């Protein structure tokens, strides 16, 4: 009888402890407990095994149908634990779960419970337009269950999309079908068999999307693309086209078949893949198939043709944001520019001298070129200059001992800048063998030969060349003569004059002598 009051006291204390949920149980009252959250579900369910009232800091092993699912975990300092794992494939019914935990007094303590597997379905993919081929997988059906029927629910009932399906020993099966004609939005997929009722099976859902398409998969900023929509509501209004979540076209109205078409320009955004979708008055954005459009880097030149020295503005779109890009002209570095947050930039360069015609302007990062465009250097030649001096047919110098003549001609102007070429020859056809001087790159309108040329007749001509290497015609040949007489003739004349003067002196002297003799 003395023991009874004591038992009552202990019982009251234990009940008080149980009534305080915020106080962890340490095992003073009641033994170790294992709970499953949830207690049932389809294979693939994430199961959490919770334990309490075990000894602290002890190793835990968890077995599911005899297979070790977790090891190496320890209980907490309060003797609790929580272990999660995914329920493997298995047939409908109870499946044994055993938890083994170490103790202070004996080797291990074992707790056994069970997880109830229920049938369910998964579908892949989970959304798409009508006609999409999907794969449906059954899990947790009765072992080797046969006569399974797969059902797809449309707006007015359901279509049987698979029959006479048989599960394997794990209650698993798989089949494929094409989504039949059905309205946009969520549609249920269900199944039933000889042992499983449809209300026992966890449904799968497939979202039927409206369809949009684009006429090109990629392009540059500012380029026009056309989007076509179908399977929207008949005469649906308020349809918008969304580019990376931002509306680019609004106020679209579908026709009686739920179709429409609109064209817009690619907005300024960084290079890469961007999402295009749509939504309408009755069609939410999630019910519309998403498309990917790649923005490619592109540049625009202004102007795209002109003379040497043109202030060329280079505008880039669709580059990576916040990056430095290099601007090259015919492979030579000209400038650096920084892109903004939308991957755009603008820079100016001066067109350098070069051959008239097309020239490549390329933009890129350090890794290589990304985009290019063509600048056309003007191809209009400058006018031919006019020869001034020496005048045609004139003489230079008195005696042909040699002289370095100075040539002068009129100036020529050109937007690309201009320089001159001079040729001097001994024949007016300027064959290579007759040319005695050929000078290029002259920026002034006069030039003095760097050496004397002997007595003779010479011809000269001048050509203008601009910075784009456009060449004017050569001027008509002008002629000039160096010296009045050749040197030998001049010497002969001098000698003759000296001799004549000597002879005259002698004659005069003789006459004077005769005159003196007479007197």
List the main descriptive attributes of the protein structure presented here.
five-stranded mixed sheet, 5 domains, Immunoglobulin-like, disordered N terminus, 40 strands, 2 helices, single chain, elongated, mainly beta, 519 residues
Strand order of the largest sheet: 2-8-7-4-5
Sheet with the most strands, sense and barrel status = 5 strands, mixed
User: Based on DSSP secondary structure assignment, what is the total number of beta strands?
Assistant: 40
CATH superfamily of the largest domain: Immunoglobulins
Bulk shape: elongated
Number of helices: 2
- Can you give the mean pLDDT? 89
Would you state the CATH class of the largest domain? Mainly Beta
Structural class: mainly beta
What portion of residues belong to β-strands?
over 45%
Supply the number of structural domains.
5
CATH architecture of the largest domain: Sandwich
């Amino acid at each position: 009888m003395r023991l009874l009051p004591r038992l009552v006291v202990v019982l009251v204390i234990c009940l008080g402890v149980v009534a305080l949920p915020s106080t962890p149980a340490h095992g003073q009252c009641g033994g170790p407990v294992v709970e499953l959250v949830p207690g049932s579900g389809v294979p693939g369910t994430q199961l959490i095994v919770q334990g309490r009232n075990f000894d602290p800091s002890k190793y835990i092993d968890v077995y599911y149908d005899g297979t070790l699912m977790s090891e190496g975990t320890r209980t907490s300092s309060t003797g609790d634990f929580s272990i999660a794992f995914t329920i493997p494939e298995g047939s409908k019914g109870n499946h044994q779960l055993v938890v083994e935990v170490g103790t202070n007094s004996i080797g291990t303590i074992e707790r056994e419970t069970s997880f109830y597997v229920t049938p369910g379905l998964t579908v892949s993919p989970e959304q798409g337009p009508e006609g999409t081929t999907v794969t449906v997988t059954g899990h947790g059906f009765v072992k080797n269950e046969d006569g399974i029927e797969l059902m797809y629910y449309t707006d007015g009932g359901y279509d049987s999309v698979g029959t006479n399906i048989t599960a394997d020993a794990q209650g698993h099966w798989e089949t494929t079908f094409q989504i039949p004609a059905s309205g946009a939005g969520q549609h249920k997929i269900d199944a039933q068999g000889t042992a499983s009722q449809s209300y026992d099976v966890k449904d799968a859902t497939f979202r039927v999307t409206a369809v949009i398409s684009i006429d090109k998969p990629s392009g540059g900023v500012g380029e026009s693309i056309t989007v076509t929509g179908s399977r929207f509501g008949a005469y649906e209004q308020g349809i918008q086209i969304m580019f990376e979540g931002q509306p680019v076209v609004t106020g679209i109205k579908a026709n009686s078949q739920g179709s429409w078409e609109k064209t817009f320009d690619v907005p300024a955004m960084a290079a890469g893949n961007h999402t295009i979708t749509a939504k309408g008055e009755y069609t939410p954005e999630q019910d519309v198939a998403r498309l990917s459009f790649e923005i490619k880097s592109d540049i625009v030149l202004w102007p795209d043709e002109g003379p040497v020295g043109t202030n060329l503005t280079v505008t880039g779109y669709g580059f990576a944001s916040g990056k430095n890009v290099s601007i090259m002209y015919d492979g030579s570095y000209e400038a650096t520019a920084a892109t903004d947050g939308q991957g755009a930039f603008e820079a100016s360069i001066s067109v350098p001298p070069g051959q008239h015609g097309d020239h490549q302007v390329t933009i890129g990062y350090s890794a290589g070129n990304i985009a290019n465009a063509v600048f056309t250097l003007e191809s209009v030649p400058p006018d031919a200059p006019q020869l001034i001096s020496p005048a045609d047919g004139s003489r230079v110098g008195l005696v042909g001992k040699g002289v370095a003549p100075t040539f002068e001609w009129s100036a020529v102007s050109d937007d690309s800048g201009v320089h001159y070429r001079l040729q001097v020859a001994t024949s007016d056809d300027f064959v290579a063998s007759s040319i005695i001087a050929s000078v290029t790159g002259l920026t002034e309108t006069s030039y003095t030969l760097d050496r004397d040329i002997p007595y003779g007749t010479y011809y000269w001509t001048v050509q203008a060349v601009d910075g784009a290497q456009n060449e004017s015609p050569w001027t008509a040949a002008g002629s000039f003569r160096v010296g009045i007489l050749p040197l030998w003739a001049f010497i002969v004349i001098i000698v003759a004059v000296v001799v004549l003067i000597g002879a005259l002196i002698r004659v005069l002297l003789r006459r004077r002598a005769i005159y003196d003799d007479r007197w």
